[in-house]
């Protein structure tokens, strides 16, 4: 445990095997209690103690990785993590079926910024149950070229943890990802696909969720992703977003899919004011050529998958889909497509740039085995 005023971790490493790492910054004099329960110690920071800033940078590394995984807690006014890594979860070859990993808990009275390749990871690599990831900020949570992951990785067997973000606003840009995966087969390391049920992704913000690519920069599209990988067995988790407005652009995606044996999760967006989907993003294709990918909300059963797609439900005042963006639920494997439900109190607008159509798609491929879902477009009551 480390308590101080402003805290800077520059290229440093903090490791507590199956233990607890806790950083707390305070800007003014005050009293912080130490809660003791058996061999466990925890800081108790009163609400009236003003926090200071914490910076973690230059490949700094905080890990409680181990057989059962520990806890990481950071309390700050503003938390800035750059090109650094936070790992909890269970390590390969060290799990047991009853293992319960701890949580990663980042709390800021101001803002949380993850940038320059930062990774926050609480994944399950062997047997047991993954812990949760919590990000709580009074102002904003921003990801720039960074990843938050809570996966059941290849070789993992158990239950995935949730990712919970609560903030004033949330922003993803420059190739950032929030993902809860049931990872597929790892051929290179001879590991089977993960087994179990992946966790949910829950985003609750007062203002806007903004997910956009960097203009004129390739491979900077962003994603909120829940999936069952090839060779994995189990169900994907749900994606739930509660916000004032959702802005999705530049080829970014909200994606729930199955490529293995199991069902895709549901996607639910409750936006009090607006949902905007716009345009496409520049990407490098598998063959190395340049291409574009549309902005999208999709739920799918992919080829070779056995399972059903989840439902997509959008509740808002105004929905706008423009310049080639689309919403889709489909099956190309063995399973049913999901339902698409749009409840809009005011207007639903479709517009196109004249080259790529703007669409809502609900389909089953002719070679697939399954039923098409329903599409509902109705004003909210």
Distance between the termini: 51 Å
- How many domains would you count in the coordinates? 1
Please, what is the average pLDDT?
Answer: 89
Structural class: mainly beta
Helical segment tally?
A: 0
Using DSSP, what is the number of strands? 37
Largest sheet: 19 strands, parallel
Unreliable segments (pLDDT under 50, ≥5 consecutive)? Answer: none
Helix content: under 10%
Give the strand content: over 45%
The general outline is globular
- State Rg: 21 Å
Please outline the helices and strands:
Elements lengths: L1 E3 L2 E4 L2 E3 L4 E6 L7 E5 L2 E5 L9 E4 L3 E3 L7 E6 L2 E4 L2 E3 L16 E5 L3 E4 L3 E3 L5 E3 L3 E5 L2 E5 L2 E3 L7 E3 L3 E5 L1 E5 L3 E6 L12 E3 L3 E5 L2 E4 L11 E6 L10 E11 L3 E6 L8 E12 L1 E5 L5 E5 L1 E6 L10 E11 L3 E6 L8 E12 L7 E6 L10 E4 L3
Parallel strand pairs: 1-4, 2-7, 3-8, 4-9, 7-10, 8-11, 9-12, 10-13, 11-14, 12-16, 13-17, 14-18, 15-19, 16-20, 17-21, 18-22, 19-23, 20-24, 21-25, 22-26, 24-27, 25-27, 26-28, 27-29, 28-32, 29-33, 32-34, 33-35, 34-36, 35-37
Antiparallel strand pairs: 5-6, 30-31
Descriptive notes:
This protein is mainly β and 381 residues long. The chain has one domain (2-378). Helix content is 0%, strand content 51%. The protein contains no helices and 37 strands. The strands form 5 sheets. The protein has a 19-stranded parallel sheet that branches. It has an 11-stranded parallel sheet with strand order 3-8-11-14-18-22-26-28-32-34-36, with no helix packed on it. The chain has a 3-stranded parallel sheet with strand order 15-19-23, with no helix packed on it. Strand 5 (33-37) and strand 6 (40-44) form a beta hairpin. The chain is globular and about 65 Å long. The relative contact order is 0.08.
């Amino acid at each position: 445990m480390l308590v101080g005023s402003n805290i800077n971790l520059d290229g440093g490493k903090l490791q507590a095997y199956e233990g607890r790492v806790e950083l707390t910054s305070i800007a003014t004099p005050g009293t912080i209690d130490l809660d003791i329960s058996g061999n466990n110690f925890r800081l108790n920071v009163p609400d009236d103690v003003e926090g200071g800033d914490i910076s973690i940078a230059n490949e700094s590394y905080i890990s409680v990785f181990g057989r059962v995984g520990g806890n990481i807690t950071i309390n700050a006014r503003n938390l800035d993590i750059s090109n650094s890594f936070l790992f909890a979860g269970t390590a390969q070859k060290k799990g047991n079926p009853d293992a319960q990993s701890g949580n990663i808990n980042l709390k800021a009275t101001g803002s949380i910024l993850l940038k320059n390749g930062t990774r926050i990871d609480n994944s399950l690599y062997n047997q047991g149950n993954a812990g949760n990831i919590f990000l709580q900020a009074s102002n904003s949570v921003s990801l720039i070229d960074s990843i938050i992951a809570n996966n059941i990785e290849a070789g993992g067997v158990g239950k995935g943890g949730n990712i919970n973000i609560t903030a004033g606003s949330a922003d993803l840009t420059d190739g950032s990802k929030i993902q809860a995966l049931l990872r597929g087969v790892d051929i290179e390391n001879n590991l089977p696909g993960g087994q179990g049920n992946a966790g949910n992704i829950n985003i609750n913000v007062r203002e806007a969720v903004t997910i956009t690519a960097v203009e004129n920069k390739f491979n900077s599209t962003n994603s909120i992703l829940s999936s069952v990988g090839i060779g994995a067995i189990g169900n994907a988790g749900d994606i739930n977003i509660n916000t004032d407005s959702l802005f999705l652009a530049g080829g970014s995606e909200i994606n729930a899919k199955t490529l293995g044996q199991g069902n895709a999760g549901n996607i639910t967006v409750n936006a009090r004011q607006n949902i905007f989907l716009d345009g496409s993003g520049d990407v490098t294709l598998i063959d190395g050529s340049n291409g574009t990918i549309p902005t999208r909300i999709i739920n799918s059963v992919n080829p070779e998958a056995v399972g059903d797609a989840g439902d997509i439900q959008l509740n808002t005042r105004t929905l706008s889909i423009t310049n080639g963006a689309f919403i889709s639920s489909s099956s190309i494997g063995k399973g049913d497509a999901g339902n698409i439900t749009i409840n809009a109190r005011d207007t639903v607008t479709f517009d196109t740039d004249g080259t790529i159509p703007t669409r809502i798609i609900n389909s089953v491929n002719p070679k697939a085995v399954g039923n098409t879902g329903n599409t509902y477009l109705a004003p909210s009551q």
